[in-house]
Design a protein that fits this description.
Layout (H helix, E strand, L loop, with lengths): L1 H40 L1 H22 L1 H17 L8 H21 L6 H30 L8 E5 L5 E5 L8 E4 L7 E7 L2 E4 L1 H4 L5 E3 L4 E2 L4 E2 L4 E8 L4 H15 L6 H27 L1 H14 L3 H20 L2 E3 L2 H7 L4 E4 L1 H5 E12 L1 H11 L5 H10 L7 E7 L3 E6 L2 E6 L1 H5 L8 H13 L2 E7 L2 E12 L3 H10 L3 E5 L4 H11 L6 E2 L4 H13 L4 E5 L2 H9 L2 E5 L4 H6 L2 E3 L5 H36 L5 H20 L13
Parallel strand pairs: 11-18, 11-20, 18-19, 20-21, 21-22
Antiparallel strand pairs: 1-2, 1-3, 3-9, 4-7, 4-9, 5-6, 5-8, 10-22, 12-17, 13-14, 14-15, 15-16, 16-17
């Protein structure tokens, strides 16, 4: 329903925008004739041109300008009810400027003398509607991402009925103690206990643990985990929003509503600007009523028109919208405008390990022993769909494999079979040791101990009952991880590493990156990640969190800026303020650089807009600006802001971006 409402609101605004620009274009054609000398000719042609402009401008003001008049009237009522003029919205002087400009032009048309500014008013309305449309479209895109939040967990489950029959039921039909069947390759729909079967589960999306875990009867499992190897039957303890992942997602939705929007610089200036304009208008009217009553209305109108805060109100949203568009085209999607401003204040960066600093998949890290055994082990593992088997096959490449006979996989232990004329066993070292009478060679034991310290997964290889190799598998560190951490530290940012992976694996990564031990922690739950981010914020730090999974979602939402890296889950993307859709970590450096650039552009645009308003207001009070000059200057300043926003250098040369 909400998605439909957002789309309908955008559609209505697009129609209003199209009508406004169509009318403005026709008014400009008539105005061109007047500016080209038709007004000097006078007579019926000039009168007809003025009336034609009035007829075209009236619906532009009434229909195109309606949102500004409605918000202005609402803010006036709120300010009057609260007895607080600071509650007047920025649309109030905009609406006033449009009304004064149109009213003056309409009166000049009716009486047949004076200047008309229909072209300036209609172009101004169209330009302002363009800025509003860009903002609404951005919010709609973010809302659509939120609607996809719950797609991680299956919406249906295979419930075991009486007599062992299987029926497909919806999540909301599941009750506690219902038994559900989860085939290999599917995602668990419930939290519960395994009552039948043994398998390997990929919990990376929940815990950040890169290595699959073995579950047997009596083991506890969670919704969102992927069943890798064999069918399981699970007795339901929680389903839907009551599951662990459901509670985490509910927290993301809740904080999304509670999180206050960043008050941008233009908004902070707005209240004082409105009061100043109204006070200055009254002062101008009184001053010229004393000096020259015949000029009081003209100079007051010129002041109200020239100080219309159109450029001031457009500077920030347009600069952010254009920067966000460029960033998206270079693989950086900024969901929140406020995130761009907060990025420039970040002093602490918290990084997840699995899928963020690492590639997020198993890889062969080290092979100790006979290289010929590698060919035999690869041929055997090519028959398996286990992540370690896939990693070994990727490492060996596409070389032709010998024939395999009698292949058998033992869940949680390993595989064995005949490769050519050799009996090969690949699996857990302890399991392999039980299949041979030979003791583990000293060099293999040394390697095994080292693998354990590094947090790698050890795998033994037997050929014809003899130890031939010991391999280490793990999640490989991204090539750009080290340079990124060093670059962040050179900029004065403190880097922390929080991961659900094994503490030994996290410590090894931290050592490789040069991070102090007290800034790298493993075995951290999603709730603990969120708490750690909160603790850093309580100490006065502005925190940026980078992650890619459900286990990072709560921390991403709690951080001042949440960044989801490419390949992340839907949940992490929705929880984050920024999506890095380009692969790797290099885009994070581009993000910081682009944010600094766009904020510099915004400060310049705001400075230019304020200078324009100060100079224009002073000239109007002094009687140096006629209403016609004011009417031309008003849309000209807005168009100047648009031009400068388009020419800004932000995100123009993102490294590694695809043009």
């Amino acid at each position: 329903v909400e998605a439909g409402q957002r789309t309908e609101a955008e559609r209505r605004l697009l129609i209003r925008l199209g009508v406004a620009w169509a009318l403005a274009g026709n008014v400009m054609l008539v105005a061109f004739a007047l500016y080209s000398g038709l007004d000097a000719v006078g007579g019926a042609l000039e009168t007809a041109a003025r009336w034609a402009s009035l007829v075209l401008a009236a619906p532009a003001v009434a229909y195109g300008g309606a949102p500004f008049f409605q918000r202005a009237w609402a803010s006036i009522r709120t300010a009057v009810a609260a007895h607080d003029p600071r509650r007047l919205h920025m649309d109030t002087p905009i609406a006033l400027g449009i009304a004064v400009g149109f009213g003056h032009s309409a009166w000049a048309t009716v009486v047949g003398r004076g200047e008309v500014w229909f072209d300036s008013i209609t172009v101004l309305i169209a330009a302002l509607l363009t800025a509003r449309y860009l903002q609404l479209r951005s919010r709609r895109l973010a809302g659509e991402a939120a609607d996809r939040l719950l797609t991680l967990v299956p919406t249906t489950a295979r419930r075991i009925g009486e007599g062992g029959s299987v029926e497909i039921v919806r999540q909301d039909e599941l009750r506690r103690d219902d038994v559900v069947e989860v085939p290999a390759g599917e995602v668990l729909p419930v939290d519960g206990l395994v009552v039948h079967g043994a398998s390997r589960l990929d919990n990376a999306v929940l815990t950040g643990e890169a290595r699959p875990v073995t579950v047997v009867e009596g083991g506890r499992v969670s919704a969102g985990a992927t069943n890798l190897s064999a069918p399981l039957r699970v007795r339901t303890e929680a389903a839907g929003e009551a599951t662990r992942v459901g509670r985490l997602l509910a927290w993301v939705r809740e904080t999304d509503g509670q999180r206050a929007p960043v008050v941008l610089l233009a908004d902070r200036i707005g209240g004082a600007f409105l009061l100043s304009v109204f006070a200055l208008a009254m002062f101008t009217a009184v001053l010229w009523a004393i000096l020259d009553p015949s000029q009081a209305a003209q100079h007051t109108a010129a002041l109200l028109v020239i100080t219309c805060p159109c450029a001031l109100g457009m500077a920030t949203p347009l600069a952010l919208a254009i920067a966000a568009g460029r960033a998206a085209r270079s693989g950086l999607f900024i969901k929140s405008d406020g995130a761009t401003q907060r990025l420039t204040d970040v002093d602490t960066v918290v990084l997840d390990k699995t899928g963020t600093l690492t590639e997020g998949r198993m890889a062969l890290v080290e092979w100790v022993g006979d290289d010929t055994a590698l060919d035999l082990a690869t041929a055997l593992e090519a028959q398996s769909n286990h992540p370690i088997a896939a990693a070994l096959v990727r490492a060996r490449g596409d070389e032709q494999q010998p024939e395999v006979y009698g292949f058998e996989a033992v869940a949680g232990q390993g595989v064995h079979g005949l490769v050519g004329h050799h009996h090969v066993v690949v699996g857990r070292p302890a399991w392999c040791g039980a299949k041979t009478s030979q003791p583990l060679p000293t060099d293999f034991q040394t390697a095994l101990d080292r693998f354990a310290q590094e947090g790698s997964t050890p795998v033994g290889v037997l050929v014809d009952g003899a130890w031939k190799a010991m391999a280490a598998f793990g999640d490989r560190l991204r090539d750009e991880a080290g340079p990124l951490v060093h670059a962040l530290e050179r900029e004065g940012k403190t880097v922390h590493l929080l991961s659900g992976d094994h503490p030994a694996a996290v410590a090894a990564v931290a050592s490789h990156l040069g991070l102090a031990p007290d800034r790298a922690h493993g075995g951290v739950s999603p709730e603990a990640k969120r708490a750690a981010v909160g603790q850093l914020q309580a100490e006065g730090h502005v925190v940026l969190m980078v992650g890619d999974g459900v286990n990072d979602a709560a921390a991403l939402r709690a951080a001042d800026v949440g960044v989801a890296v490419g390949g992340g889950t839907t949940v992490s993307l929705v929880a984050a303020d920024v999506f890095l859709t380009r692969p790797g970590l290099t885009p994070l450096a581009d993000l910081f650089q682009g944010a600094r650039s766009v904020m510099r552009t915004i400060r310049r645009l705001l400075g230019l807009s304020l200078a324009y308003n100060l100079i224009g207001a002073g000239a109007a009070v002094a009687g140096l600006v006629t209403p016609l000059v004011a009417a031309v200057a008003m849309p000209a300043s807005s168009l100047l802001v648009v031009g400068l926003a388009i020419l800004q250098p932000s995100f123009r040369r993102a490294r590694g971006a695809t043009p």
